[in-house]
Amino acid sequence: METNLILQNVLTPPVLFFFLGIVAVVVRSDLEIPAPLPKLFSLYLLLAIGFKGGLALEKSGFGGQVFPTLIAAILMSLLIPLVCFVILRLKLDVFNSAAIAAAYGSISAVTFITAESFLESQNIPFDGFMVAALALMESPAIIVGLLLVKLGAPKNRPNIQEMKWRSILHESMLNGSVYLLLGSLVIGFLTAAHNPVGVDKMQPFTGKLFYGAECFFLLDMGIVAAQRLPSLKKAGSFLIIFAVLIPLLNACLGIFVAKALLLGPGNSLLFAILCASASYLAVPAAMRMTVPEAKSSYYISTTLGLTFPFNIVIGIPLYMGLVNKLIPSIG
């Protein structure tokens, strides 16, 4: 266990604010964040990370490891939900297995941002094209999850209309977070290439404000995660164990793929965290609409109440320790 790395990660403002939110719920404080603000801050974080990723991508270019990494990211987002589905089917029905598998095949942008902040605090470099991998990994898992339901569910599902695949594909590939992230990435790339003055003008907004906004957003995430903890009892011990072990398995898979791609330590950690994280926004929204038989208390409480805090507190430094051990010669 990388105790020193875990302590360094825990004693950072974003993670401490996350704990502050948890404690607020535990001690029944009346701390409350108005509903529009977390949404606004989540949009800001996506815009800023996409813009900064575009700047870095323009600097690094498209050669070398960029396209192999992006293709590997898409393949992992197709493979991980299949592996999760096989494991979940040992205890759960098709609907819940597919919904949870889709959530774990997709990604958490906030976990990715926290991992980036961790790398910056450790002075470990990483590349901007990893933001493109983040955007590309959100949608395929949703499609895989819905295909699993389509193939495995009874043909006469009651009160369920035929899936409208055009709407599902549109929602999964052009939902707000993916659209804003990719759009900001392109704008950042074009601005860096043709308008350096524009980069300087954006820096106070996308640079200096970023860390504070991340702290505020994680404060809210701590409150929401703590509110989800009671639901874990309904999920049962199987899902609780799954929510802790599957990020470790997926992170190890990600690190081995990163090693095969010859990624450096920083990019390897980001690739691992993309594989280990789980969606608690886009996938639940899609599953509520198309798979109402699945219990939302299962796939939201496990991803948000357990996997998310596990990853940002213990997972990130633990995966970094594994990266340092398994990829020691690449820097």
From TrEMBL:
Keywords, ordered alphabetically: Membrane, Transmembrane, Transmembrane helix
Transmembrane segments: 6-27, 39-57, 69-88, 100-119, 131-153, 174-197, 209-226, 238-262, 268-286, 298-320
Pfam families (alphabetical): Sbt_1
Name by which UniProt lists this protein: Putative sodium-dependent bicarbonate transporter
Species the sequence originates in: Prochlorococcus marinus (strain MIT 9211)
